[in-house]
Design goal:
The protein contains 26 helices and 14 strands. It is of the alpha+beta class.
């Protein structure tokens, strides 16, 4: 134990004082470990309930929502790595040619590396991809316990922190939404950042260089997991460093600098290509832009705007238990002049400001500020656990009168049901089941999702289940059976577009509409996100410009589906209407001969007229042409990227990504 940790109250690193325990010493030492094992067992049991082996170990990746996007990113990265040893590529099968593995994929790099690594060991790619969710879920109580202990928290209090952290992971609305919908890298980073911060605290207390090495390893891993982790760690680490800057020797200053540089170097494998193509980046401020009024609606458990807090009832009881307990714990630390106060207060202050005021500031909207409430909640768990343990101990020691205990009991009587409702919302099997038939449709007695209530009579449990989203593989089978590679599929529903992009060899325009790359200009449904469509001639020009041969509509768009002069209904798969373009254009501009075939990092042309040609694929500066031909950028109306022009083209040639 360091001198700081042993110095007692008011010191620069107080270890919370344990009450006297009459149990035998071996049992007393083992009891916290047994408590931690119980928390871990309960946590793993819940994780297997929400993410069962039948889903994780199946041969299909987790279906729907962001899982489709992230599996597509991982799939493209793994394919590119197999070809070139790099995890980015020019992908002509999406958005008329886009760069995969950079910018939009920056929050997916650790997942890609994890999947590629497991696949090299013989694990099937979908299973390797799915196992990342188990990794993120299973580590929760261990990270909270280890972080609390490094912050000089006594063992039983660290067990309480692990239990509260587990409850926040499963039963806080935004945390559960992230794990269910597929924002798992952020959900993982939102608690894992506690470990490098705690290791830095331990280095500051002991000046042991091994702790700096631990910080370097953890920080490098964390930045690979999600680049926004930098914004989590910068404020508290700066406070810790600057507070002791005059007492550090030159070797220690050099060590801190080496950690910063080393973490950047460990991430250069994805940072360099990302910065190389930074000119293609677009606005990212579409979601999670909360404002100060969300403080009240979150506290009351009311849904404000689904595009901010997720299409899930606002269950925030454990979040405010952590934040409220942290406020009291920080007050206690400040009163005792505990050195843990400053880094925790700085970090929580910054995170809460970004979460609830970031929606007012354009530059903060680019990082989707409401997401930062998760790391704020998780950081709050540690001082909250300290306060709860010490507060309970103080009550027991003070022996308050019966009326005071009655008041405590009354508060628990009122507050415990809120926490229980938060749990039951996600485990509705525990609710009383309906046994009598109801009128159809049943009356909406609870005000719907905007009042944050459990839907009646059949609540949704936000679990992952096998065999869901069967319409997606059915559509992929149809596309595989009908695609000949001569034209593109314009897909309206973003989730289906993401699925088809990785599940088939077709060239797809669609998917996530708000992708922050200029290549998304090719997506008609980004240009017209509602039910309005361009005029008759503009629509004809669009279909021709991007060589669209098929159009798939999942949600009603009368202005598009009524264009029978351009489209002919071909088939219906589940709810997806499939239209064939009556007069499709070719991928090679002009009426001359020539066949185009495209795959990752290459476009092959056979039997072309030669000379000066234009292909309806997005330009990229790393593309090259062989044999003996040259490429140029061709401006295209309403498209910021432009198409590929070829000069001195032979009849047969190939365009490839030269990296």
């Amino acid at each position: 134990m360091s001198g700081e940790a042993a110095a007692g109250p008011g010191s620069s690193g107080t270890r919370d004082q344990a009450p006297q325990d009459a149990r035998p010493a071996p049992l007393r030492r083992a009891a916290p470990l047994l408590g931690l094992l119980a928390v871990v067992a309960a946590h793993v049991g819940l994780a297997l309930y929400f993410d069962p082996p039948a889903v994780i170990l199946s041969t299909r990746p987790l279906p729907g929502f962001d899982w489709e996007t992230h599996y597509g990113q991982v799939h493209a990265a793994a394919e590119a790595y197999g070809q070139s040893g790099r995890t980015w590529a020019y992908n002509p099968q999406q958005l008329a040619g886009q760069i995969s593995g950079v910018i939009f994929d920056a929050d997916n790099k650790a997942w890609e590396a994890w999947t590629i690594g497991l696949e090299s060991l013989g694990v099937p790619r979908p299973i390797a991809f799915n196992l990342f969710l188990w990794l993120a879920a299973f580590l929760v109580p261990l990270v909270f316990y280890a972080s609390a202990r490094l912050f000089d928290v006594r063992p039983w209090t660290a067990v309480a922190a692990a239990a509260l952290g587990s409850a926040c992971w499963f039963f806080d609305a935004l945390a559960h939404w992230c794990a269910w919908v597929g924002m798992i890298c952020w959900g993982f980073a939102a608690y894992l950042w506690l470990l490098p911060l705690a290791a830095f605290w331990r280095w500051r207390a002991t000046r042991d260089p091994w702790w700096l090495l631990a910080v370097l390893a953890l920080l490098s891993l964390l930045l690979n997991l999600h680049p926004y982790s930098f914004f989590l760690l910068a404020p508290p680490m700066a406070v810790l460093y600057l507070r002791d800057v005059r007492t550090l020797g030159w070797r220690e200053h050099l060590g801190v600098a080496a950690v910063a540089v080393g973490a950047v170097v460990a991430n250069l494998w994805w940072l360099r290509p990302t910065l190389r193509f930074w000119s293609y980046i677009l606005d990212s401020g579409f979601y999670l832009d909360a404002t100060v009024d969300y403080v009240l609606t979150d506290w009351l458990g009311l849904l404000n705007e689904p595009s901010v807090s997720g299409v899930v009832a606002v269950r925030s009881g454990f979040r405010f238990l952590a934040l409220g307990g942290a406020a009291l714990g920080l007050w206690w630390w400040r009163r005792e002049r505990d050195r843990r106060f400053a880094p925790f207060a700085a970090a929580l202050g910054v995170l809460l400001f970004v979460s609830y005021f970031g929606g007012y500031l354009g530059f903060l909207r680019q990082v989707q500020p409401y997401r930062f409430i998760l790391p704020a909640m998780y950081l709050a768990v540690i001082p909250a656990a300290v306060f709860l343990e010490r507060g309970i101990g103080a009550l027991r020691a003070a022996r308050p009168p019966a009326a005071a205990w009655g008041l405590v009991g009354l508060l628990l009587f009122v507050t415990v049901p809120r926490l229980a409702r938060d749990v039951l919302y996600f485990v509705p099997e525990l609710l009383p089941q309906q046994t009598r038939p109801l009128p159809a449709p049943p009356p909406d007695v609870n005000g719907g999702i905007y009042f944050g209530t459990i839907r009646w009579p059949a609540p949704f449990d936000f679990r992952h289940r096998p065999g869901t989203a069967e319409d997606l593989p059915a559509m992929a089978a149809f596309v595989d059976a009908h695609d000949d590679g001569s034209g593109r599929w314009l897909v309206e529903w973003w989730m289906l577009g993401e699925h088809l992009a990785w599940a088939t060899k077709a060239q797809v325009i669609g998917g996530f509409k708000e992708i922050n790359l200029a290549h998304s200009d090719a997506n008609l449904f980004r240009r017209f996100p509602g039910t309005e469509m361009p005029g008759p001639e503009q629509l004809r020009q669009y279909l021709q410009q991007y060589a669209v041969k098929w159009v798939v509509i999942s949600n009603p768009i009368p202005a598009l589906e009524s264009r029978t002069d351009l489209l002919r209904l071909e088939n219906v798969v589940f709810r997806h209407r499939i239209y064939r373009v009556r007069e499709p254009s070719r991928l090679l501009v002009g009426d001359g001969p020539g066949e185009v075939r495209a795959g990752l990092n290459r476009i092959a042309v056979r039997g072309s007229p030669g000379g000066s040609l234009v292909l309806r694929y997005h330009w990229l500066e790393t593309l090259r042409c062989r044999p003996g031909c040259r490429l140029r950028r061709v401006p295209v109306p309403n498209d910021r990227v432009g198409f590929i022009g070829v000069e001195d083209a032979p009849h047969d040639f190939e365009i490839f990504n030269a990296y």
